[in-house]
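user: Here is a favour to ask of a fellow structure person. I have my own habits and do not want them to colour yours. Could you put it straight underneath, so I can go through it closely?

assistant:
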Amino acid sequence: MTDPFDPTPADRFTFGLWTVGNPGADPFGAPVRRRIPPERILERLAAAGAWGVNLHDNDLVPFGASAAERDRIVAEFQRALAATGLCVPMATTNLFSHPVFRDGAFTASDPKVRAFAVRKAMAGIELGVELGARTIVFWGGREGVETDAARDPRDAIAWYRECLDLLCGWVKEQGWELRFALEAKPNEPRGDIYLATTGHMLHFITTLAHPEMCGVNPEVAHENMPGLSMVHAVAQAMECGKLFHIDLNAQKIGRYDQDLRFGSEDLKGAFFLVRLLEGTNGRPAYDGPRHFDAHAYRTEDEEGVWDFARGCMRTYKILAARARAFDADEEARQILAATHADPDGVAELLRLPPAEAATALAGLDLDPDALAAAGRRYERLDQIALEHLLGA
């Protein structure tokens, strides 16, 4: 009998070369696993039921490789993609590892560094297009400061905008149908990173020359590090049509960026996130890849890496099943229907033109004491959700 939680390509699960390829190094210790060749990564991901693989430019092509070496590596990778049936839905550019980016990339004070970052991003986009990517992610890992004595943050934001406007215009001139997904993070590796949350990014996008091309790529760990809600960040992005990509992992609040296996921390938050993405409550679902930006514990050997990858996908599918069961639960539906009930049509009054709304609202019999006395039954509703999550 087929296990309903085994992943299949129809689930559209993706991993980055940098995720399953992570060798287990950290700031206090050297790598503990050998580098896994990209072709082997593709083979094992396909066997595990993944749909696609994503990459930074230098995950595949070493920094400084010659044009001939670059073309050879890309051709071999394309053959492996064809053999495994995997696709590359997203590509990104590493603008944080090389020492040239120690003071930022698009926000570096030195305009020559900003120019180099744009040129490198162009090459990364060209690689993504060659591999079939339709989404380009930008994570500003070095776009920040340790001291605000370094520059006025307004200058940094303006430089960031200039670089993205240039890249958007260049992509349009090439005739490529691409979307840019901007990824926020509050800190690490910089003391403070500009545009620290998904909300910051959503506003920033409205100031760009081509806002229609740009959306966001929220990450669980990046929202949870400062104690924010990933569910709320993703909901805001979905509500305004800007959820272009998503990074799924797990994180303990207040810790360094852990990139843990999806669902391994804050299981309740993961449950409500999957419910949101899958649209099990009747709202539109997210239609993009379910990308896991996480890596295996440092304790693991290579086989443990594939345990980690399977675990991410299975947990997502289990949570999706639990979310469907919760949203079909009759008692939960009754509680929600009661709390949203509007027998007098008051909600429609709030949608009237301001003058009409003011007149209509003035005539309403609204007793604040009576309204305040009504319980919501959220304790029971939350317990129902928890019991479905626990499989009880």
User: Anything to note?
Assistant: The chain has a mean pLDDT of 97. Residues 23 and 354 are 59 Å apart (CA to CA).
